[in-house]
Amino acid sequence: MLKAIMTQGSDKASSTNCRSSIVIFISVVVLIFSWNPAMLCPHMDYDWSGWNASDLRPLAEMDAWPADPANKLVYARLHSVTDASGPESLAFDSNGGGPYTGVSDGRILFWNQGGWETFGVTSSVRQVTDVCNRKPVALKNEHICGRPLGLKFDAHGNLYIADAYFGLLVMSPKGGVAHPVSTQADGVAFKFTNDLDMDENGTVYFTDSSTRRPRRQCNLLIFEQERTGRLLKYEPSTQQTTVLAKDLYYPNGVAVAKDSTFLLVSLTSKSRIMKYWLKGPKAGSMEEFADVPGYPDNIHVTKEGDFWVALHSRRTQLQYFFANNLWLCKLLCGVPVHYIGQPAHSMVIKYNPAAEALDALEDRNHVTTKFLSYAGERDGVLWLSSVFCPEVWTMKLNKTNSNQQN
User: Fold this and answer.
1) CB–CB of 231/276 below 8 Å?
2) 42 part of a folded domain
3) What is the pTM of this model?
4) How many structural domains is the chain composed of?
5) What is the DSSP string of 294-354?
6) Least C-beta-crowded within 10 Å: which of 115, 162, 229, 293?
C-alpha cells in the first residue's frame, strides 16, 4: 500500500515536472520568436524600425470619433460584379458613363446598360498566357495580370490607372491595353502604386504605398508600420515624375481639393488623413488633417468640395492593444492585424475642407457592406466598393426612413 502511494506520488511529481518543462519550452520559443520573428517567417524580411505607438490616439477618445448609431449602411443596395472580384475604386467618364472599375484579374470593367463589360486590361501578357483568365485569379499572379486600383479620367477622355505592379498607366478613350507613363521616381522603382487624382490642370498626384513590399503583402505594411511610402506628382506635358513626400506610413487614397490648393492623402497604418499644400505660403508642407477611427483607404472629393473617406474597417479595442505591444506584433508576424478579433466594421465619413465631420455611415456587423475601399458621391447617390469583395453598393443620401429601399 505504501509502495503504491509512493508510486502514485512519484507519477504526479513526474507529470507536474513534465508540464512545467513544456511551459518553459513554449515560453522560450515564444520569447525567441518575439525577439526575432524572422526565425518564424524568414521569407518576409521584417523591418520594425518604423514601429511607433507614441502618436496613437488614446483609446479613451474612441467614443469622440464620428459615429452612426442608426447603422445606415445596412440599407445600401448591392450590385454584384459578376465573374470578377475586388472593384477597388470607381470612376465615371465625362459623359456620365460608368462606373468604371479595376478588378483582381487585371481588367478594367464598365457598367453598360445593366451589365459589366470589359473596357481594357493593364497587362499585355494576357495575350500569351491563360493564368489571368482562371477564376478566381490567384494572388500570386497579380504581378503577371496586373492589379488596377485608383482610376481617373482626364479632360481628353484618357483613363489614368494606378496599377499596383505596373505603375502609373494610361488607357485611351476606346479602352484596350494600357501603357505605362511612369514606373519610377528618383531612381527608385514603384513597388505598390495605389491611388491617384488630378488637379484642375490635369497634373496627376498618386501614391506608391511602399518601396519594399508589393500589394500582396499589404497587411504587413500595417503590422510592422512600414514607412517607405511616397506621394508623387506626374506632369503629362513634360512626362516628369516628382517625389513630393517620402518616408510615409502606408500612403493610400489621395484626393485633390476642389480649388487645387491642397490634397489629402490617407495613411492607412496610422489611421490618419494628412493635408499636403500645393499652393500658398505653406506649399510643399504636410500637416495632419484628421484622425479617423479605422483604416482609411480611398478619398473622393464632391462637387461641393467636401471629402468622403472610406474606412476598410473600424479600429477595435483588441487592435488597439496589438498596436501598443510590439512584442505581440512580432509574435503574430504572419497575422494581418485588422483581421484579428472582430469582423470587418464598414464605415465612411464625410469631411468638409476644414476637417469637420459632416456625416458618418456605418454597417457595424457587415450585414450588407464589408471591407470598403471607396466611397464617392454622384447626383445624390453614394457609391461604395470593396477591394476584396465582388460587390458595388449604392445608397441615396437623402434617405432618412430606414424602411425605405433604394
Assistant:
1) yes
2) no
3) 0.85
4) 1
5) EEEEEEEE-TTS-EEEEEEEE--HHHHHHHT-HHHHHHTTTS-GGGSSS---EEEEEE-TT
6) 115
Whether 301 maps to a domain, the answer reads yes
165: buried, middle or exposed (CB in 10 Å: 19+, 13-18, 0-12)? buried
Half-sphere exposure of residue 266: CA atoms within 13 angstroms, side-chain side: 30
How does pLDDT run across 51-92, given as a tens digit for each residue? 777 777 776 676 788 999 999 999 999 999 988 899 999 999
SS3 197: strand
Query: What would the grid cell of residue 373 be?
Result: 475601399
**pLDDT, position 279:** 97
- 3 within some domain: no
Q: Are 85 and 387 in contact (CB under 8 A)?
A: no
> Do residues 251 and 230 lie in contact, with contact meaning Cβ atoms separated by under 8 Å?
yes
The span from the CA of 40 to the CA of 330, in Å, is: 10
Identify the domain containing residue 288 by its residue range: 55-396
Ranges of beta strands (E only) in 203-330 are 204-208, 229-235, 240-248, 251-256, 262-267, 272-277, 286-291, 294-301, 307-314
Asked whether residue 32 is domain-assigned, the answer is no
What amino acid occupies position 276? Y
Chain centre to alpha carbon of residue 369: 15
Please write the tens of the pLDDT for every residue from 200-242. Answer: 999 999 999 999 998 988 878 887 888 999 999 999 999 999 9
